[in-house]
Amino acid sequence: IGPTDVRVRALRSAISQGTEMLVYRGQVDPDLPLDLPTLKGSFRFPIKYGYASVGRVEAVGAGVDGIKEGDLVFVHHPHQSCYVVPETAAIRLPDDLEPEAGVLLANLETAITIVLDAHPRLGCRAVVFGLGVVGQLVVQLLRRAGAVAVIAVDPIERRRQLARSIGATLAIGPEAGLVQRVIQETDGVGADVAIEVSGNPRALDQAITTVTFQGTVVVASWYGTKPVSLDLGGAFHRNRVRLRSSQVSHLDPALGWAWSAARRLQLATELLGEISWAPLISHRIPLEDAPEAYRLVDERPAETVQVLLTYV
Question: Which tens digits make up the pLDDT trace of 26-58?
């Protein structure tokens, strides 16, 4: 431990069913540099990965004054039972927060960024494609932002049921007739905004057809090396649809100078105690059984929402 470092003993870490599964399946350019300070090298195997760890601080350097031993912290760190990081990398969580709520901090920051990029207005109508953890959080945030209708789309019934319980006004599968159902539920005009967070390139094509004239489609999925083919000759062209990329590393400059990463982090930390998080945790698996956890997420996604690795 250096003078400005802390040592963290992990309690829980979350497996990302989007980004992390792309890495697990080898669907990321192996020469792409890793983009977190706790990660080094590239996406080439073998790789230590993960970015949502919560633990207790068990030791601090002599120069650390913002964090003390025993504090609950979140760190963008790979799945690992114990690690040393700079004090600035450890985000102090509220003392009374459940560690399992804390692991959602990274996903909640992503969801906040998506909603900020969507610019929902009071009374807007939205469609969310993909009901993994980020999609479920987006559903909740859209309702908090004033959306009167949030239509949730996912092929897995369990996730649709969950979305209904936390705020979706309608949850349907991506089957034929989807566009007509959205049009029907939005008084014949289509949604004001569609958010694609499924990781499935085909969903983006559907999203384009569900929005109204000059509607906005926010592309929050990272497709990795998967090819994306779009039909841009119909609804996209005639309806003047706007496509926006959303990525958590940056905030929309249109929000103004007052919005910063620190402000977003503060908001996310506060919202951890207010959102409905417990229903999102579907499995808790010990770290030593991580291979089983990855196979579960990869091969049986219909059974999972958020899978956690446990350490104690």
Answer: 998 999 888 788 888 899 998 889 999 999 999
Write a three-state SS string for 195-221. EECCCCHHHHHHHHHHEEEEEEEEECC
pTM of the predicted protein model: 0.91
Of residues 195, 233, 185, the one with CA closest to residue 215: 195
Give pLDDT tens digits for 63-88.
999 999 999 999 999 999 999 999 99
Q: Bridge partners of 33?
A: 42
